[in-house]
Amino acid sequence: MFVVQQGGAIRIAANGSLVPAPFLDITAKVDTGGEKGLLGLAFHPQFPQNHLFYVHYDRIFGGQMESVIAEYQVSASDPNLADPNSERIVLTQVQPFANHKGGQIVFGPSRVARNLVVRSPQSLAVFL
């Protein structure tokens, strides 16, 4: 079982306890606190073959808060570790507010990752 920790780590729970080394540790990238942080994890539908997974996290970039959807790959040498250098940013979205974060990532019938992004009630063209 994988445990997403808001501070920026993903841990593996096995045999009733956490594996000592984090599966992925991106705490240095994640802006955390309140409703911000590492918020979502989804495994690619072909994860057993391609070893790809996706995370949703908040960061500060260029002085602005952003939500990030990023793809990572499992380490080639250890299936209990992700390769932190494999990050490929799929989507970034400037966030005007630090609250009301969802974070859920799902794959639709077309096997394309879909992030449940909230749109502004004042304008459906504005993502929050």
Summarize the structure.
With about 130 residues, the chain is mainly β. It contains one helix and twelve strands; from the N terminus they run E-E-E-E-E-H-E-E-E-E-E-E-E. The chain has one domain: 6 Propeller (Neuraminidase).
**Which superfamily, in CATH terms, is the homologous superfamily?**
TolB, C-terminal domain
Architecture per CATH nomenclature, i.e. the level-2 architecture:
6 Propeller
Poorly predicted spans = 115-120
Instruction: Encode the helix/strand succession as letters.
Output: EEEEEHEEEEEEE
The total number of structural domains is 1
| Tally of separate helices | 1
Task: Please summarize the sheet with the most strands.
Answer: 4 strands, antiparallel
**CATH fold label:** Neuraminidase
* Radius of gyration, in angstroms, nearest whole number: 15 Å
Looking at how many chains there are and whether they match, the oligomeric state comes to single chain
Q: What is the CATH class?
A: Mainly Beta
- Give helix % range: under 10%
Span from first to last CA? 30 Å
Average predicted confidence as pLDDT: 86
Q: How much beta, percentage-wise?
A: over 45%
Describe it.
The chain has one domain (2-127): Neuraminidase (6 Propeller). A hairpin with a 7-residue loop joins strand 7 and strand 8. The chain is globular, with a radius of gyration of 15 Å. The termini are far apart. Strands 1, 2, 3 and 4 form a 4-stranded antiparallel sheet that branches. The protein is mainly beta and 128 residues long. The chain is built from 1 helix and 12 strands. 3% of the residues lie in helices and 52% in strands.
